[in-house]
Amino acid sequence: GVVDYQIKKDRILNLQYFPFYINLVSGQQEGKDLPPNSASVFGPETSALLQVLFEDGSLTASQTILKASSCLTEDSEDPVNIQKLWSSLGTLVSQKIIESCPANTDQDSDIPKFSEDGKKMPGLPHLKISDLESAVSQGNVDNLKDTVYWTANNAVCSRMYRDSLIVHSAVRRIDDTAGRIVRSILDAVAEVNDPWSPTSSHLSLATITSRVKKDWDSMVSHLDQYLTILTSDRTRFVDKVGDAGGGQYQVNYKHIFTEITASTLEKIILERFGSKSMRIFRFIREKKYVEENQLQQVVMIPGKEVKLLTYQLLENNFICLQELRKTVNNNAPSKAIYVFYVNFDQVVRYCQNLCLQSLYNLKVRTKQEYTACERLVKRRQDVEKKTKEYEQQATEDQDIDDFVAPLIPAEVEALEALDHKLDQCNLAHMATLNTLFILQTYLKYKVS
Questions:
Q1: What DSSP string describes 349-368?
Q2: What are the pLDDT digits (tens) for 148-172?
Q3: Which one of 158, 289, 313, 386 is CB 3.0 to 4.6 Å from 319, fit for a cystine?
Q4: What is the pTM of this model?
Q5: CA-closest candidate to residue 135, choices 78, 54, 60
Q6: Separation CA 141–CA 124 (nearest Å)
């Protein structure tokens, strides 16, 4: 037989999000106000573990510890606690943030046959910490009995990122307390429900209350009022679907991301065309079909300007124009009215393509900026390295400038300009990725 391989575009794009996943798991993105049992309080050790797994794809547990300890040693001069790293790795396994890879059961065959037994493994292999510390200090873990490979669980990481976006949206729409309650509800839903279903199963008021009390004891007294606010908000972070047992609630992920996506598209239009265009887009989307005369009356913009703005939106595929004939008789004089409408899915796909193009442009721009100043960057690195060496060797009477030629002011100014440009490119890259994830999640729920 012949083995066929294919490129998984979704998985390649998913690799772009790994900085977000690492920040979420290590607790650097959502801040300190998190439930004690939340996956976002695992600490900085998990950052190094996840980073090496994302970079290498799959590693054994001992190889992961070895590479993570090397990364931590480069960043800090303090000795690495192997016991703590091993405990953090076990936590990632128990929370299903990483999973074991299927094993090839037929090593001699040209066609690999994978077994799923590895994913049913309860935890990490039983290794003595003393043996692991000795192997890590020697830089060789091949002699350890560790044959199971581990990889990052993209589904769980994506779910955590999705939940963090919903929590941030609740904080912006209402307040911090509402965000924390939504966080507890989402964590409770993830434990009993398929995390990527369009809607969750029903949660009773008692279940929500016990979860919020476990995470935030002081918020239980105001829970009823906040649930009322969350259900009545336009985004509908929680839906009330029954009155049994004090109330039955569910999370409609599909509707939530429809609203978040709409808000994201409005921000894109605001940045590109201004607030008046955003007002026109929002009104057309809410009313579904709108004539030009209605636009002039409702959005309170002069007719000439309305025509210009609607043409811009139409030209950039944010709104569509449809002709409605008043008569079907071909011999009668042509009478028709023209209405504007928003093909929401088409707009989302168009903006998704814009995001992908922007990511490519940012990578090209970053490379060009770095290449233009590559010589200066290498010179700065050499100066810093030599300065560090001579600081340890030079006496009090000796000046470091006698050993190392410092950067001249023009070079320092050029490097500062380069750092500023690279920081701007990095911020734009992260913001574009965030927008792309929202759009992709909406389309994922739309298909389902």
A1: HHHHHHHHHHHHHHHHHHHH
A2: 888 888 888 899 899 989 999 998 8
A3: 313
A4: 0.85
A5: 60
A6: 15
